[in-house]
Design brief:
412 residues; alpha+beta; 8-stranded mixed β-sheet; 5-stranded mixed β-sheet; 15 helices; 16 strands; elongated; binds histidyl-adenosine monophosphate
Length: 412
Amino acid sequence: METKPPRGTKDILPPEIRIWQFVEQEAHKHFKSYNFKEIRTPIFEYIELFQRGVGETTEIVMKQMYVFTDNSGRTYVLRPENTASVARALIDNDIFQIAGPKRYYYIGPMFRYEKMQKGRYRQFHQIGLEIFGDEHPAADAEVIAVGYTYLKRINCKNLIVEINSVGCRKCRTTYNYELELFLSKNKDYLCQDCKDRLTRNPLRILDCKNENCINLVKQAPIILDYLCKECKVHFNDVKFYLDRYKISYELNPYLVRGLDYYTKTAFEIKSGELGAQNAVLGGGRYDSLVKELEGPDVCGIGFALGIERVILAMDTSSIKEDVLDYYIVCLTEDAVMYAIEISEGIRKYNYSCEIAYKPTSIRSAMRIANKLNAEKVIILGSDEITNNVVSIKNMITGEQSIIHKNDFLKQL
Ligand code: HAM
């Protein structure tokens, strides 16, 4: 039997799991301080949700979805992203009937069949947030600020915020036409993938990593020159509010995102600590998605970050390893009942405690205690039971003491 996990997935074990717990706990605290509420949606959804939401011509929908059929004959996918799912959940639960902006965040696994690379997995984990129903440009700036300050809070290094506007349906149509015209004239310089993208989705050519394509794109028209008045004003206001939030950013007119739902603001936060897959966080505004999914005409903006990539970009040195407060060693079979009584007393005070039930020698118990990172070891044998005391060894100072059981529990 194969014991390796499927390609593109990995097991996360201690001590690495400490970093994951830290990243998740800080996310709960950080997002709550901006009044985002957590939402959990199913890991699989009907295929139509992403075909409609993310877009039929995107790489995600065309090539990367894990599609399966269940016994009922219906077709599902493991979710490749969560923005469409959150929008669906709010439509289904009539949340849009309630007035005012809706602010949600989520943490969970996503699935994309992608080529393996450092920082790129087939099951990866995102932390994301979405604001629905707030068209104010300060909301765009706030979302970018929440993402940036969160990444700083968890010690991500070498961060660069990049922003762009991808316009609305109106201005993008004119731009797409001009871009396609320019690229068609220079088709011979494009890689095969981009030749295929030319008629399907020319915007995607802007972030092709092929050197010839990059050089050609540098001479192509840029979307910022084609923005309609409304999109231009919105983008200028977003920049104004980013300054108020004290977020430094770079303008990247070639920044386009791999999902079709974006309108106006698009952004990514990259880390210089990573290789080719250097985007730790990506997001933008999506003003037509909810309507596209047959919900009301409600705008949205949000981002998602990849936990695996964030961890690669983090300084994790200050994250403390798990410590075991008390390790109780039974030297005889009789000591087990006594150990259980003491362990329950210890846990009442919120200390962690593990019992080694099987009678063992002190030497081998100490070896295990060190491996478990135990701070104190309690040794229980016949003498301790008879005298109603506990023998304690402090593993940090080496100090040993014998103390009456009641006094021990009282001093906790
Ligand atoms: P995305 O850019 O596709 O956007 O993904 C967001 C982040 O997820 C990326 O910046 C990256 O850190 C991580 N990520 C994506 N694919 C992989 C992978 N194969 N392996 C590891 N990490 C990966 C979205 O998913 C949008 N739903 C974000 C959004 C929310 N836009 C608005 N609201």
